[in-house]
Amino acid sequence: MNQEEFLLQHLTEGKKYKQICDENDSITLTELREWWETGQELRAQIKRSNMLFDSRKGKEEFAAFQKARKRAFFEWFRKQPRHCAYCGIEENKLQKLFDHSTGSLSTKRRRGRSLELERRDSKTNEYSVENCVLACYFCNNHKSDVITEDEHKLYFAPQIRKYLEDKYTQLQTDDNR
């Protein structure tokens, strides 16, 4: 067992520290606590994946992912590029733009800092590996069952990207003053 396996078992499968120790004779509670403390980046990734999973759990259109469970969903999530599938804005720029204290953008429900789960074809109403991508807040909310993925990429995504890049450049300029 290593740190990643511990965090995955604990955070996606719900295993308790004691259970993990009982199943792995060579692991101690002290080691697990240390792995917890030093695994902040991976914990944050798993937490974000779990939030996306839990927000759709129980919905019929999410059944394809639900059968796979949280761990499999996380494995899919971590393989996704860390930029919007439509406009291409990088997630690290979104985090700065939507930062609650220093960013220049905000939403009522505090969305925007992270990429969101998006159905490429919303007419199928299915969340599946083949039909899902990660998208920024703007593209996720703009693309609909009226506008296809290709139409959104052609007509709207370039302007959304320009808007976000301009806002990011302005934020960087303001920070340097």
**Describe the biggest sheet?**
2 strands, antiparallel
Low-confidence stretches: none
Q: Main sheet: which strands, in order across?
A: 1-2
CATH class of the largest domain: Alpha Beta
Please state roughly what percent of the residues sit in beta strands, choosing from under 5%, 5-15%, 15-25%, 25-35%, 35-45% or over 45%.
under 5%
User: Which assembly state applies to the chains in this document?
Assistant: single chain
Q: Specify Rg, calculated over alpha carbons.
A: 19 Å
Shape verdict: flat
Work out the number of β strands: 2
Mean pLDDT: 92
Distance between the termini: 49 Å
The CATH topology annotation of the largest domain reads as Herpes Virus-1
Helix-strand makeup class = mainly alpha
Total helical segments: 9
Helix-strand string: HHHHHHHEEHH
> What level of helicity do the residues show?
55-70%
